From TrEMBL, chain B:
Organism expressing this protein natively: Zophobas morio
Record flagged with keyword Ribosomal protein: yes
Pfam families (UniProt xref): Ribosomal_S2
Gene3D superfamilies assigned: Glucose-6-phosphate isomerase like protein, domain 1
Sorted UniProt keywords: Mitochondrion, Ribonucleoprotein, Ribosomal protein
Classification via CDD domains: RPS2
Protein name per UniProt: Small ribosomal subunit protein uS2m
Length: 166, 240
């Protein structure tokens, strides 16, 4: 009874989250396995409540594309020119670093003179975006010609700000 | 054993199950393929991905406004500061249709050919084709491979039943010749079309990003899963 009462409270507060199937199986458990009149103690009651809470909140509501886009980092960026982002080096060819920063294209930057040896595959770096796509219209053509690359300036390594001083 | 099965694929032999059904009990047993074709999602490929998966794989990013092809406008959500954004709800619908077709073709023991022209992701596409037992062509495309196959290969050739283009353009940003040639030879085509591509000649276009390695990885994974499901179902339905 106490279990069902606590579940009822949950249902009234958040009717969307509580899964009916969950409620049904819990009630069948309560009637079948446990002795009928055992009043659950305070700790046991709280334990049951938080067990169900965990399984309910693990199911995420499907997000619409519009909301995903509106809350995305790309929209947060605004006008990309002049913005600083972090990227990761995924390929190195001698002195050219191929950096992916979460956009459609990667950017290619020359290896800087300072800390040259630290720029390897997997290094996280800071970039200043100049253009998100190197494409422009050439004279006489209707459509842009694109280079399939972004244009960024490599500012440096991402500073490790972890609090654990080893 | 493997060479025998390859030979049978090359010459296109009819499966024995189908032969039996047509010769012995023509009216009594219904055509097994009809049930599969009538079902809207026989292989449950609709659950292979969600819109969030597409979003995380950067499928909604397009090129700039200046290189937009007008024929892509129905699939575009809008443009954000000059950059085209695809409507992932529509993309999801088209992608599900394409995956269903790929699974059905694999179910009927069809030959599927993957195309991608671009050094960055070529190896991934070839590996995907090998893993799902299908074929890939990620090199220079000679003119008459489909249209002049008998002369080029020196023998009667079985052409693919489905062509999947992970990028419908070649290196110079012109449409891949195989799109036109497949249409000429009556081969169904599935193709990922970016905002600068022409979706007209593709049977099942999938509007989305074709430049990011993350997006190409996602497509490879999804098509491989769909094809393997089709093949598993074929084994289950006709070998029981």
């Amino acid at each position: 009874m106490a279990l069902l009462r606590s579940l009822n409270k949950l249902v009234r507060l958040n009717p969307k989250i509580v899964n009916l199937k969950c409620v049904r199986t819990l009630s069948s458990d309560a009637s079948g396995e446990k002795p009928p009149d055992s009043k659950l103690g305070g700790y046991a009651q709280a334990f049951e409540k938080f067990e169900t809470l965990k399984t309910e909140e693990s199911k995420e509501l499907p997000q619409t594309f519009a909301s995903l886009l509106r809350n995305s980092k790309f929209v947060d960026l605004g006008d990309p020119e002049g913005k600083v982002v972090t990227g990761k080096i995924f390929h190195v060819v001698d002195d050219d670093l191929y950096i992916d920063f979460g956009w459609k294209f990667h950017c290619v930057c020359p290896r800087p003179k300072k800390n040259a040896g630290e720029y390897v595959r997997g290094t996280r770096v800071r970039l200043l975006i100049k253009q998100l796509e190197l494409s422009s219209k050439f004279l006489g053509y209707e459509k842009d010609v694109t280079l399939l690359e972004a244009d960024c300036v490599l500012l440096g390594l991402v500073q490790d700000r972890s609090k654990n001083i080893q | 054993m493997r060479s025998l099965s390859l030979l049978s694929r090359k010459w296109g032999s009819i499966s024995t199950a189908r032969l039996n059904s047509t010769l012995t009990e023509a009216q009594a047993t219904p055509d097994p393929h009809k049930a599969a074709l009538a079902h809207p999602d026989y292989f449950s490929v609709h659950n292979l991905f969600t819109v969030k998966d597409l979003f995380d794989a950067r499928v909604h990013y397009g090129h700039r406004d200046g290189s937009l092809d007008e024929r892509m406008l129905p699939y575009v959500y809008g443009s954000r500061l000059g950059h085209i954004i695809f409507d992932l709800d529509k993309t999801a619908e088209y992608l599900r249709r394409a995956l269903n077709v790929a699974a059905h073709v694999a179910y009927r023991d069809g030959i599927i050919l993957f195309f991608l022209r671009g050094a960055q992701n070529s190896h991934l596409v070839e590996k995907t084709a090998q893993e799902c037992g299908e074929f890939a062509h990620t090199r220079f495309w000679r003119g008459g491979i489909f249209t002049n196959a008998t002369k080029q290969f020196g023998a009667v050739t079985r052409l693919p039943d489905l062509c999947i283009f992970f990028n419908s353009q070649n290196n110079v940003l012109l449409q891949h010749t195989a799109v036109k040639d497949a249409a000429k030879m009556g081969i169904a085509t599935v193709g990922v079309v970016d905002s600068n591509c022409n979706p007209n000649l593709l049977t099942y276009p999938v509007p989305g990003n074709d430049d990011s390695p993350a997006a190409v990885e996602l497509y490879c994974r999804l098509f491989k899963a769909a094809i393997l499901r089709g093949k598993e179902r074929r084994k289950a339905d006709f070998n029981e």
